[in-house]
């Protein structure tokens, strides 16, 4: 083979090897170190995205739960306060006690009329009342019950707590009973239960004959509630106002007139929280209460609310007389 042919063969071999090397370089993948770095970076980015999603979801549920509780406190409790202010409307007797005929706060059957024989368990009661039982999600503290009555003497129709119309000038007395019960479709259990604040409305005649019973399950006022407490405000002096539980008030020998009603509630959301922690201790009307222990329960947003309602139809006027000062005798 001539030198010329040998040189040409070597040149062709070098060119072919160069093309193969370029092709091999183009087809080369990641090294093991590069792959591990990519996986770590991908996991870090995924973890950050998941964390942001969890935080956003938790924030949304907290905001939604707080909104539900706020709606219940603003709309439901304000409607309850408006009905309580109607207590004793249409009654010429402005002094409310356990013996007042058709008194605005129903504590005894006498308050409903001379011929009334309603069970006392359907009247205003608290956890210390004899024979009265109620449900609550607070440990060792039962809920209370508030029963009021009024008559529509206005020129316009009114509506009771169940939505029934009360004709203007109706001669019947409207009775409304506010209490805590199990939510519809819920069975009783030992732990935290699904409770609701309900109202059952009825009618009684002038002498106390029950025309429409108020002993049923009623309509839900607050869809999710853990506690409902009631205190009766009585004026025991010119500048003194005492708040007593209904059972304590009934034990007094000299019962002062009731002028205000103080209510306390613990309201919860209907949307469970994602977080594993929530508030479990509350103060309602000056009493500290703890939520029932229940490891299987879902966590909810809970807040306590208190309100003092002045009974506008049971105001008292206290007159204080002072002796005139005589001028000194010269």
TrEMBL record:
<dbReference type="InterPro" id="IPR032092">
    <property type="entry name" value="PilW"/>
</dbReference>
<dbReference type="InterPro" id="IPR012902">
    <property type="entry name" value="N_methyl_site"/>
</dbReference>
<feature type="transmembrane region" description="Helical">
    <location>
        <begin position="32"/>
        <end position="54"/>
    </location>
</feature>
<dbReference type="Pfam" id="PF16074">
    <property type="entry name" value="PilW"/>
</dbReference>
<keyword id="KW-0812">Transmembrane</keyword>
<protein>
    <submittedName>
        <fullName>PilW family protein</fullName>
    </submittedName>
</protein>
<keyword id="KW-1133">Transmembrane helix</keyword>
<dbReference type="Pfam" id="PF07963">
    <property type="entry name" value="N_methyl"/>
</dbReference>
<keyword id="KW-0472">Membrane</keyword>
């Amino acid at each position: 083979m001539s030198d010329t042919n040998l040189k040409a063969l070597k040149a062709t071999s070098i060119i072919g090897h160069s093309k193969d090397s370029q092709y091999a370089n183009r087809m080369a993948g990641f090294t093991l170190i590069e792959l591990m770095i990519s996986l770590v970076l991908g996991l870090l980015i995924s973890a950050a995205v998941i964390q942001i999603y969890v935080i956003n979801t938790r924030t949304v549920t907290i905001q939604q739960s707080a909104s539900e509780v706020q709606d219940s406190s603003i709309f439901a409790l304000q409607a309850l306060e408006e009905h309580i202010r109607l207590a004793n409307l249409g009654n010429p007797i402005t002094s409310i006690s356990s013996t007042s005929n058709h008194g605005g706060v129903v504590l005894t059957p006498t308050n409903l009329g001379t011929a009334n024989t309603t069970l006392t368990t359907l009247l205003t009661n608290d956890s210390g009342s004899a024979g009265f039982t109620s449900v609550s999600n607070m440990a060792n503290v039962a809920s209370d019950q508030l029963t009021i009555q009024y008559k529509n003497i206005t020129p316009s129709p009114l509506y009771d707590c169940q939505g029934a119309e009360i004709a203007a000038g109706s001669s019947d007395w409207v009775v409304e009973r506010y209490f805590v019960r199990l939510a519809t479709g819920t069975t009783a259990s030992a732990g935290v239960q699904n409770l609701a604040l309900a109202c059952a409305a009825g009618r009684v005649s002038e002498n106390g004959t029950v025309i429409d019973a108020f002993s049923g399950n009623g309509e839900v006022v607050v869809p999710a509630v853990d506690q409902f407490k009631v205190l009766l405000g009585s004026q025991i002096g010119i500048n003194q106002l005492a708040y007593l539980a209904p059972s304590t008030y009934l034990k007094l020998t000299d019962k002062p007139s009731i002028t205000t009603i103080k209510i306390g509630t613990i309201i919860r959301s209907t949307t469970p929280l994602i977080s594993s922690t929530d508030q479990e201790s509350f103060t309602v009307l000056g009493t500290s209460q703890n939520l029932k222990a229940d490891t299987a329960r879902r966590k909810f947003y809970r807040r306590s609310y208190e309100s003092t309602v002045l009974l506008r139809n049971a105001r008292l006027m206290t007159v204080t007389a002072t002796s005139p000062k005589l001028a000194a005798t010269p």
